[in-house]
Amino acid sequence: MAQTAQTPAPPQTEQPAPPGAAGRAGAPQGRGRGGGRGTQVQIQPGQECPAGMSEVRPLTCQPPEFPPPSIVDYRPRNTLVTPEHLVPRAKFPVIDYHGHPGQLINSAEGLATLMAALDKLNVKVMMSANTLSGDALVRTLATVNASPYKDRVRILTGINFNGVGPGWAEKAIAQLETDVKAGAVGVGEIMKGFGISTRKPDGSRLHIDDPALDPIWDACARLNLPVFIHTADPAEFWQPLDFKNERWLELALNADRRYQSEQFPRFEELMTERDHLFKSHPKTKFIAAHLGWHANDLGRLSKMLDAMPNLYSEVGAVLYDLGRQPRAAHDFLVKYQDRILFGKDAYQPEEYPYYWRVFETKDEYFDYYRDYHAFWKMYGLDLPDVVLQKLYYKNALKLTPGIPQAGFPK
Ligand SMILES: [Zn+2]
Q1: 103 C-alpha to ligand 1 centroid (Å)
Q2: Tell me: the pLDDT tens digits for 372-396?
Q3: pTM over 0.85
Q4: Domains of the chain, each with CATH number or no CATH
Q5: How far apart are the CA of 66 and the centre of ligand 1, in A?
Q6: Ligand 1 centroid vs 136 CA: distance in angstroms?
Q7: Measured in angstroms, how far is the CA atom of residue 26 from the centroid of ligand 1?
Q8: How far does the centroid of ligand 1 lie from the alpha carbon of residue 319, in Å?
Q9: Long-range pairs for 21-28 at CB < 8 Å and ≥24 separation?
């Protein structure tokens, strides 16, 4: 694949000139010791090397002799030899609280396919976090209940946030009560559009903590329905799309994850509204999806959990942040072992074993499942069994009486 290695870097269209870019850096020094090296340049303390150069010695920059590969083509072989413990099947039965099984739960054949995959992984209950409501909820539950798997799927219903204004709450509560009678066991996943893009009839942005919504959160408390809510996205998605951005590749691949434009509310604005919602409804149990997008700052999430006894959280799609800080993540999950639930998010059976391996082993320096999320390796957290059991199923069972409680280890 020599050809791949020679692929020139893409044009740096969105890259601002780095501090210390050519011109400001010192004059070329000619060839360094050992012949064959590219032209070296000196930089000043606090400066960075010009683009395309490596700081080979303090304040001395040099370009590689060959065109460097792009970040998508650089795939170095890992030469570290260290014990490897793959975990195809979770140690304890699992409830996937952040399930998006799609059409698989809408037919007998789909359910059989889904369960065959989940059995191999030891996922016992799949929560459907797709806001099924009304007739769609009734139809899906009829299919599930007519199958041999009626105890293995549970459904979270949705809230329709269109038209929030006079009369909205009464209608929304009536629908919620209907959906609960039909068999919904919670609310969610309230998607990130709530806060970012959902509008009120007058065209203004519907704030997450809008007082017009208070009655629905109170109804969730009265009906003992946990509210599974996804707010915003990783903070880096609001940062400039330059080569300092930890999520550059993900943002370059996904236009709908870029919030640099002022048309979007700022990340911290959304966090403030979200936290105000959680605090102003202490009787409502909220589950913040994706560790509230604070998996890269567990201290911040710890403070929230300390301040909000009604708050729970969930680990879907943020394994890359837990696995890069195995000691801090271990201590966090031990300390908050009664507050964190397992969820996977996107349904890809081959990806679950990465979670088992991070949570259950003490393996070192292994791949995450998507290169665009993480340019770094994973380390196992080696969680104790008592914590694994709470993470995998006990917390979900406690929070959600509508999940069949039998058949799990005590
Ligand atoms: Zn989701």
Answers
A1: 15
A2: 988 899 999 999 999 999 999 999 9
A3: yes
A4: 38-69 (no CATH), 94-399 (3.20.20.140)
A5: 43
A6: 18
A7: 50
A8: 14
A9: 21/50, 21/51, 22/50, 22/51, 25/49, 25/50, 25/61
